[in-house]
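Bench notes, afternoon.
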Amino acid sequence: MTSLERLNNRLAGKPVDKIPNLNIVMAVVAREAGATYKEYVSDYRKLVEGNIICAEKYGLDSVSVISDPMREASAFGTAVVFPENGVPYAEKNLVGDDFDLSVLKRFDPEGSERTLDRLKGVELLRQKAGNNYPVIGWVEGCVAEAADLRGINELMMDLAGEEDYLDDFFPVIHEQQKRFALAQIKAGADFIGVGNAAASLIGPDLYRKYGLQWDKAIVDFIHENGGRVKLHICGNISPLLEILKEVGPDILDIDWMVDFSRAAEIFKGTKTAVSGNMDPVEIMMRGTVPQVEEAVRHCIEAGTDTTCIAGGCEIPAATPDENLLAMDRMLYL
């Protein structure tokens, strides 16, 4: 059974030979490709090379263009800093305290260097993976992208104050989000990952007002255009779980601080499969093989016939090979 067949069957609740391994790896991909993090986020060929190596070496059941949150921000006009071995970040907030949204460029994903690099990554992954692995594209969720453009602290204050400009801000972000997602589907992505980590910080009331409609809108848009969705809101989303049923992604990542049994029960019988949720640092990176095995066993027992298994968030670069391999061994049925 190929990884693509395995994931398709699992999401449909059909028999599989192994529970899909959906670990998120970025720094590990760079390491395996022999690249600095700067090279990994700047050269799609390095990203693709490392993804294929990791999938084959560690039993991953997907390949992905996830890399950093600054792809769209750069295309919008943000000046981005690229540390040699760190995650890119904004040199300064593009949207300032005057809330001037005219600074936001409306970009063609093929016309901006960083978004084009991701599209090329999707195309090459599709070529290399063939029908063996699902290819996961990636866009920022609207709350996360707003934080990238405005600054996380500033955005939290704006949301709490329910600033008027937000009603104009989110639609601009969403229109570009749709364009970028569609371009990746056309390039060959089976899934679009939607990364909306900042949404875990705002609570149910503000999420209903500023997050829900946009997460649901991008999920619906991707489905209408033939793709599927993997929604990633890392952090403690326990207060949001019931609301997220309304969003309807195909896969919902569950971070380690969330009760996985409760999450699996909430989404049981829905069209959303949960994926998670070992602690990527204390268990996967610092734990022993028996500790990894125990944690994986707990997730399997807590899950349902559609559940996938992964670290709650990104697997750190220093994670021992034996821990990654032990995790994958546990998934065979």
